[in-house]
């Protein structure tokens, strides 16, 4: 049994099952072949890399992207060691890893690897080779997904012509490119050309691979989406259902493609005034995405987590859009929506906070060296980022920064797999857990911003499926998980304008006398001798209060302690100094004891115990920004090239705080808040 031919037979049979969509039968055979080859050759044979690739490909098709990334990476290392960089197998590894990065939303890495693979294949195999066609098709798919249609179309046409010339018209790869071309035309709004391509691809795939194959399910989903975009709901619905049933049968109920099709069908059900059924489908899809999020967060870096959440953001927006448009009076729907917000909102920041808490908790002494290395890498990245290079050092600077970031991300991944705090699946997060953790007499106000989906938009008629973003507020009293209220605050654009005007009005400027606002003139008494001025709310503050707090006030009852979890530009609002009436004589902090969270989920962090004693609190407020900014920016201008693709310190850092030409204004409200703390 311990013979290379046995491993080859196992791998070939697994490949057959894999190609037929029989994934449960393929996996154990792939694993047996890999174990046997590793026992026979260790990692000193290309067949080991082939087995790693094959098993990774299965995981990729099953949506197990983290597992696929690990094995694809191992295969790349083995091939590079045995074959060197100039080998066709290296191009295969680069292409495979790019596919995983694309699915996880790591677009910059994906594009780089796809281009490398194409260049390598052309150099080693020539232009007339099926692998070159594969690279052309994959790069075009990447461009299409990123909205770079003019770059995608010529590549797809090249891939289709090359595959037909090399493989003939009746080949699965030809059907694959027809599908890709149809997806491109759909994205461009060329709907009249899409149906013909999809039907050709579907017919060819069924003829070559049979009716029960994942490619059939994918094409069915695309065809249903076309009919939905044309407003042909009765034609689209049964095809969506067929695609979902087939995908579940072939790939399992937890596959990402199932989640995608469920979300698509939910949109159609909402368009045909069946919101309760739509909610049921969205609940299924969110459970699938939650499982994938747990996997991604357990083995990825902060950037990778953020990229994946952005990739699946549409599911979040569709859920809240359904709630707003059809189910705002449904207790079940409102509760389910808050559960989703608590799970998803600010999730990347929460994972990073959990990581930092683990680092400083003292619970992992065996990881102390890695924690120290992570802090060191972070310090180096920050220092290098804000130390612009001289013109002749730009290339070295960029290379060094990229190396540090790669090391930092790799170390974050290793630590994530070893820290229970980041294993999100072990931390149940919902309104029940949060409500029970809130102290008696405390109410959580969870704000959320989202894009509004128009379920009835007919894309084929030029209608947009996305409407202006809005803010919602969810009210959750302590100990009452079933007493959730949802309030629509209105469009984010209007509220954000009010926030901007309010922030500008409370910043010290020419319209305010220095002595009135507590600002010292130069060569006067130090800050410690200054007196706190009386705060005079501007009209913008009253209007902002009426927009974002007055609507939720009736739902707060007699409660006096609030936990506010803001979102979007609401995170920039100092709620405590908002006036409660037009006189401006009373502020919110006169009526409520207000604390802030990034998300209501953060209240659960107190369950994690630490042996490290807290240090004495340090309160920083009302900073004086008069730090010779002009001299700093002049130095930067002299030493840094004006590269349009590279933000200088002046453009990147200073512009986040204010108008760099006018300088930075002090904000009196922060001093009041600091003193109240």
Q: What do you see in this structure?
A:
It is a single chain. The chain is of the alpha/beta class. It has four domains: 4-249, Tetratricopeptide repeat domain (Serine Threonine Protein Phosphatase 5, Tetratricopeptide repeat), CATH 1.25.40.10; 365-418; 431-613, no CATH class; 615-677, no CATH class. The chain has helices spanning 4-19, 23-41, 46-61, 65-83, 88-103, 107-125, 130-145, 149-167, 172-187, 191-209, 214-229, 233-251, 256-271, 275-298, 302-311, 313-326, 331-344, 347-361, 368-385, 394-416, 431-437, 492-506, 539-548, 588-591, 629-639, 649-652, 668-676; strands at 442-453, 466-477, 485-491, 561-565, 593-597. The protein has a five-stranded mixed beta sheet. A hairpin with a 7-residue loop joins strand 2 and strand 3 (485-491). Helix 6 packs antiparallel against helix 7. The longest helix is centred in the middle third of the chain and has 24 residues, at 275-298. The termini are far apart.
């Amino acid at each position: 049994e311990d013979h290379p031919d046995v491993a080859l037979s196992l791998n070939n049979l697994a490949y057959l099952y894999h190609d037929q969509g029989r994934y449960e039968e393929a996996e154990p055979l792939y694993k047996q072949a890999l174990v046997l080859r590793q026992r026979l050759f260790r990692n000193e044979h290309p067949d080991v890399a082939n087995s790693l690739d094959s098993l990774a490909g299965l995981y990729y098709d099953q949506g197990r992207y983290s597992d696929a990334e690990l094995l694809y990476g191992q295969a790349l290392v083995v091939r590079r060691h045995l074959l060197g960089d100039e080998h066709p197998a290296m191009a295969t590894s680069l292409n495979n890893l790019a596919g995983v990065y694309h699915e996880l939303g790591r677009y910059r890495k994906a594009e780089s690897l796809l281009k490398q693979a194409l260049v390598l294949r052309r150099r080693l195999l020539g232009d007339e080779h099926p692998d070159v066609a594969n690279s052309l098709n994959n790069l075009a798919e990447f461009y299409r997904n990123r909205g770079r249609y003019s770059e995608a179309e010529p590549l797809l046409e090249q891939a289709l012509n090359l595959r037909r010339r090399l493989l003939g018209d009746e080949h699965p790869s030809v059907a694959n490119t027809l599908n890709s071309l149809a997806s491109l035309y759909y994205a461009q709004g060329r709907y009249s050309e899409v149906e013909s391509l999809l039907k050709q691809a579907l017919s060819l795939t069924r003829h070559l691979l049979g009716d029960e194959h994942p490619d059939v399910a994918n094409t069915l989903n695309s065809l249903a989406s076309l009919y939905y975009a044309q407003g042909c709901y009765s034609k689209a619905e049964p095809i969506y259902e067929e695609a979902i049933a087939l995908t579940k049968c072939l790939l399992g109920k937890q596959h990402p493609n199932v989640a995608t099709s469920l979300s698509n069908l939910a949109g159609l059900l909402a368009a045909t005034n069946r919101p309760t059924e739509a909610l049921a489908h969205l609940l299924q899809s969110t459970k699938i995405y939650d499982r994938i999020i747990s996997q991604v967060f357990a083995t990825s870096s902060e950037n990778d987590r953020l990229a994946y959440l952005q990739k699946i953001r549409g599911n979040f927006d569709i859920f809240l859009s359904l709630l707003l448009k059809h189910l705002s009076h449904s207790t079940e729907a409102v509760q389910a929506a808050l559960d989703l917000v608590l799970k998803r909102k600010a999730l990347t920041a929460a994972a990073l906070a959990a990581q930092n808490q683990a680092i400083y908790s003292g619970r992992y002494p065996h990881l102390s060296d890695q924690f120290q290395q992570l802090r060191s890498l972070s310090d180096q990245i920050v220092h290098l980022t804000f130390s612009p290079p001289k013109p002749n050092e730009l290339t070295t600077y960029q290379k060094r920064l990229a190396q540090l970031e790669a090391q930092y991300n790799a170390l974050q991944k290793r630590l994530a797999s070893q820290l229970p705090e980041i294993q999100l699946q072990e931390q149940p997060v919902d309104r029940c857990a949060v409500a029970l953790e809130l102290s008696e007499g405390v109410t959580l106000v969870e704000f959320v911003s989202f894009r509004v989906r128009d379920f009835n938009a007919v894309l084929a008629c030029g209608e947009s499926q996305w409407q202006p973003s809005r803010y919602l507020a969810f009210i959750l009293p302590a100990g009452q998980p079933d007493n959730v209220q949802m309030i629509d605050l209105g469009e984010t654009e209007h509220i954000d304008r009010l926030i901007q005007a309010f922030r500008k009005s409370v910043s010290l400027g020419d319209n305010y006398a220095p002595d009135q606002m507590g600002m010292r003139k130069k060569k006067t008494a130090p800050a410690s001798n200054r007196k706190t001025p009386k705060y005079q709310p501007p009209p913008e503050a009253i209007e902002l209060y009426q927009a974002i707090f007055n609507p939720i006030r009736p739902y707060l009852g007699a409660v006096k302690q609030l936990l506010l979890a803001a979102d979007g530009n609401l995170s920039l609002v100092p709620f405590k100094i908002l006036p409660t009436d037009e006189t401006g004589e009373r502020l919110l902090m006169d009526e409520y004891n207000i604390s802030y969270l990034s998300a209501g989920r953060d209240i659960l962090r107190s369950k994690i115990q630490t042996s490290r004693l807290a240090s004495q609190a340090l309160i920083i407020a009302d900073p004086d920004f008069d730090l010779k900014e002009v001299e700093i920016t002049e130095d930067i201008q002299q030493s840094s090239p004006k590269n349009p693709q590279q933000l200088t310190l002046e453009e990147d850092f200073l512009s986040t705080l204010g108008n760099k030409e006018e300088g930075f204004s002090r904000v009196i409200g922060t001093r009041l808040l600091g003193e109240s703390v």
